[in-house]
Amino acid sequence: MTNHIAENILTVRDQIEQCALQAGRDANNIELLAVSKTKPVSDIIIAYEAGHRSFGENYVQEGVDKIAELKHLSDISWHFIGPLQSNKSRLVAENFDWVHSVDRFKIAKRLNDQRHNYASQLNICIQVNIDEEETKAGVLPHQLMPLLSDCEKLNRLCVRGLMAIPKASKVKSEQLASFKKVQALFATCQQKYPQFDTLSVGMSGDIAAAIECGSTIVRVGTAIFGARD
């Protein structure tokens, strides 16, 4: 599979273009985030040499180790997309460019306070538990606006948008039902927060529905790097 990483990236980008075309959107407004969790640095280098620059990591220490090893590739954009515990927030604040999984003010405040003064603002997305599933992380929809209001006071963070992982379904109509709820919430936020430009929804199995509902970042791992180690 390693030998096919560059080829796989092209295939996924073609898929994004086709989905964008069908949705009447510009594919240039949809970023492919290559989810490299559990994959070796050598795989990331292959993707980098194929022109890819945005990588997503789920595990703090693994991500930080990769960032350190690849610090000479200074144009990589590193996204933390996994659940974040308070005791790991400093490592994320000091090393990553984006955090997609902020779901409570305590975490946002720690990321803000632990971000270096000289660093650029840390881009964050608020994770929304859009289908209100008990087993899933994320702020509930009715709790979103109060959280955003609190996060507005944090000057080392830039709240760029929302992230969601809707309930699993292979049926496109069910996928669309969840994504439309996120899209409506996103549109409401945009009216109040002009910097809101990022909707991080959609993975390998639901890219078409996500793009139809306005996704600006799709998170794809297996289709690029193969099955997880």
Structure description:
The chain has 9 helices and 8 strands. It is globular. Helix 4 crosses helix 5 (105-114). Strand 1, helix 2 (41-49) and strand 2 (54-57) form a beta-alpha-beta unit. It has helices at 5-23, 41-49, 60-69, 89-95, 105-114, 144-151, 172-192, 207-212, 222-225, and strands at 31-35, 54-57, 77-80, 98-102, 122-128, 157-164, 198-200, 217-220. With 229 residues, it is an alpha/beta fold. The protein has an 8-stranded parallel β-sheet with strand order 7-6-5-4-3-2-1-8. The mean pLDDT is 96. Helix content is 41%, strand content 17%. The longest helix has 21 residues, at 172-192.
**Shape by Cα distribution:** globular
Q: Record the strand order, biggest sheet.
A: 7-6-5-4-3-2-1-8
Q: Structural class, from secondary structure content?
A: alpha/beta
Query: How many helices in DSSP terms?
Result: 9
Would you list the SSEs in sequence order as H and E? HEHEHEHEHEHEHEHEH
Task: Please indicate the percent range of residues in DSSP E strands (runs of 2 or more).
Answer: 15-25%
Largest sheet: 8 strands, parallel
Radius of gyration: 17 Å
Give helix % range.
40-55%
Alpha carbon gap, first and last residue = 12 Å
Record field, number of beta strands: 8
Q: Which runs of at least 5 residues are low in confidence (pLDDT < 50)?
A: none
The average pLDDT value, as a whole number, equals 96
Keywords for this structure?
single chain; about 230 residues; alpha/beta; eight-stranded parallel beta sheet; globular
Reconstruct the topology from this structure.
Layout (H helix, E strand, L loop, with lengths): L4 H19 L7 E5 L5 H9 L4 E4 L2 H10 L7 E4 L8 H7 L2 E5 L2 H10 L7 E7 L15 H8 L5 E8 L7 H21 L5 E3 L6 H6 L4 E4 L1 H4 L4
Helix pairs in contact: 4-5
